[in-house]
């Protein structure tokens, strides 16, 4: 019999069998099932179905495990060791957290009209919340030849009368290599600060703790990158061979024209070629669509439109296409 | 906590006694190799998973006893025990079966005999053994010919010592180490308690009750679809009393002061390790340190204690703040 997610039926079954005799036990039992008792503390040992509800999504990694162990240590952590949610605060020299420009918070200033009082309009994430995890998993995946047998290749070898000294396999995606994440904090990325934070948080959930290395840069990583404030940045150093490098940047497409942080396509091209030469896949999430990408860059790195219209399937196709191009 | 421990009650599992604090003790001669201190919440969680038939997902600090719990519960319940330690290379299908293509190819080229059927190269995985050991041993649904009995697979499970049980406990240790797709890929076989071996088309269905226990160190978030099928239990971080209770179980409560002294030292080392972001000494290291102290007839005031701590608690890793490592003179 196919079973689905835990529901009130499971809770009722457990309550009927175990007969909790106090509220503490009842609440503990229900919490273990990921449910909560609605309407405040239960007054009965076996509440009716109507008062059960699914609790907020369980987040074992952040709520139950990591935070209690880390909170007391935050003061002594380096930027890269700190919990992801606080990493962006370590970045810009001479200031604390990068503050979003005022026109983002108060659009009325730009439009010349007073905004009506009330609830602020909800900002929409650049990657759809539902598919964000899938998109990032696909974008960060390294393809390794550990998938199903590559029958075409086997037939080709056998057909030529050669010995099969290894079994060719189709590429399969894996995240075990982790990733180096390069976050662009130049002015062109100011409108996307919250989105960068969301991506950071999502990556922290997807990758194992020691598999995510976060570096900050402004313009192009070749100018300097680092884990802490800008005055401590050094020229970019590659991660261990094979670890994908992921960039969250506008690649100099947006931002103030005279901003000295704004990088040129030539700089990015040199960086992309260097990353490739070091044996890494370079993936860039760019908040501008393909029509604005420098054509030369699109050939040297994997560019993904950082947009709510981007789908998991499209990202997978892009990554596979790039992988085949390198073979 | 008050409830009826209908399915799992350490106090009733032969030779086991639970005191008012939830600590279990064993009669002489019946002490299992791995000891475990149950608290009421852990007993409740095991009863909930047995009542609902859901997997149990255990989280908690290293050394809090996540992995030992499964083995100990299996022993107390008289169940077969299977363990699989998940790594970053583990695929969901590895837990069900693997197919040894290379051996088949090698046999085809070297044996000079007819190619054996595919089922001879199917290696049953942990979940297959737990679900149905008979077909796992035969590598499929139909029996192997008697002439080929050397091809029978060998059950990797640990048989129960207390009584011959037909149920099984499976521990999938450190599920968070796996690629994010793995938990999702396990949803169907865990929901259906059945799967199909792709190469032979054999349909394997659970023929015995299987309690699935998974542990996570929280290295990465597990998919919501997976979490919503599991009963969640977070174990408390080990403390001095917990270590002492474990030692009392394993060695008897004759040398309480030594148990307490070493426990206090281990807690101090854990704190130092935590600050230095190093691996914290856990229960097994505590028990090792106690064994050494008992064998060498020393305590933590001994001149060699610092060396014992370095080799047993730290395994000769870099020891943080060595000046702190001098034992407490209480």
Report on the architecture of this protein:
The complex is a heterodimer of chains A (327) and B (330). Chain A is of the alpha/beta class. Helix content of chain A is 35%, strand content 12%. In chain A, the strands form three sheets. In chain A, strands 7-6-5-8-9-10 form a six-stranded mixed sheet, with helices on both faces. Chain B is built from eleven helices and eleven strands. Chain B is globular and about 70 Å long. The two termini of chain B are 35 Å apart. Residues 322-330 of chain B have low confidence and may be disordered. At the A-B interface, helix 1, helix 2, helix 3 and helix 9 of A face helix 1, helix 3, helix 6, helix 7 and strand 11 of B.
Keywords for this entry:
heterodimer; A: 327 residues; alpha/beta; six-stranded mixed sheet; two-stranded antiparallel ribbon; 10 strands; 12% strand; B: 330 residues; five-stranded parallel sheet; two-stranded antiparallel sheet; 11 helices; 11 strands; 36% helix; globular; disordered C terminus
Write the layout of secondary structure elements.
The complex is a heterodimer of chains A (327) and B (330).
Chain A: H1 8-18, H2 23-32, E1 35-37, E2 52-54, H3 60-70, H4 84-87, H5 102-105, H6 107-111, H7 129-140, E3 142-144, H8 151-159, E4 172-174, E5 179-184, H9 193-206, E6 212-217, E7 225-226, E8 245-248, H10 265-277, E9 282-286, H11 295-300, E10 302-305, H12 312-326
Parallel strand pairs in A: 5-6, 5-8, 8-9, 9-10
Antiparallel strand pairs in A: 1-2, 3-4, 6-7
Helix pairs in contact in A: 7-9, 7-12
Chain B: E1 16-18, E2 24-26, H1 40-52, E3 56-59, H2 66-77, E4 80-85, E5 97-99, H3 101-110, E6 122-124, H4 126-131, H5 133-138, E7 168-173, H6 181-192, E8 194-196, E9 203-205, E10 210-216, H7 224-227, E11 231-234, H8 240-251, H9 256-275, H10 283-296, H11 305-313
Parallel strand pairs in B: 3-10, 3-11, 4-7, 7-10
Antiparallel strand pairs in B: 1-2, 5-6, 8-9
